Amino acid sequence: MTLVKWNRPSNYYPTYSKFFDNFFENDLDFFSPRAKNNLPAANVVESKEEFVIELAAPGMKKKDFNVKIENDVITIESKREEKEVKEEMNFTRREFNYSSFSRSFTLPESIDNEKIDARYEDGVLRIHLPKKEEAKVKALREIKIS
User: Fold this and answer.
1) 72: which residues sit within 8 A by CB, 6+ positions away?
2) In the chain, which residue ranges form alpha helices assigned H by DSSP?
3) 3-class state of residue 46 by DSSP
4) Which of 18, 43, 83, 99 has the fewest beta carbons under 10 Å from its own?
């Protein structure tokens, strides 16, 4: 067995300035335009009465969303732009924040388009898609054989 001298590369231990540069280059913000996946996560839940689309979109406001239905396709769009600049701040680095997304879902024929409702609270957009009366699952009824 022999010992081999190992020369540690000069960048083996990152310097503080490199650490902070790398920290600020990583995409921590969900709505960063450089984020790898710009689409918010969505859940579609079905119950006897309705379907519910849940879209995780923290930090948004109700006015940032546009929900429309065309040809049995529901489309959820969002655009957000932050331009706030304070004159007393001295920026060493500043990146503008602009983000947008669009998600579309094909609606089944069993949906009552006239009663669709949307609510945004606690960072989640919930779209309630009630079923037509004839499409609702009826309770199981057992028939006795005589």
Assistant:
1) 106, 107, 109
2) 16-25
3) strand
4) 83
User: To which residue do tokens 């921590």 refer?
Assistant: 28
Structure tokens at 39: 């689409």
The pLDDT tens digits for 91-124 are: 666 666 777 889 999 998 899 989 999 999 999 9
The dihedrals phi and psi of 25, each to the nearest 5 degrees, come to -85, -20
Q: Which residues pair with 31 in a beta bridge?
A: none
State both tokens at 106.
């094909």
Domain residue extents for the chain: 16-134
CA atoms within 13 A on the CB side of 115: 12
Decide: 60 and 120 in contact? Cβ < 8 Å.
yes
Enter the tokens of residue 116.
């669709």
Q: Which amino acid is at 121?
A: E
Q: What architecture (CATH level 2) is domain 16-134?
A: Sandwich (2.60)
pLDDT in tens, 81-93: 776 655 656 666 6
Task: Specify whether the CB–CB gap between 79 and 101 falls below 8 A.
Answer: no
Residue type, 59: G
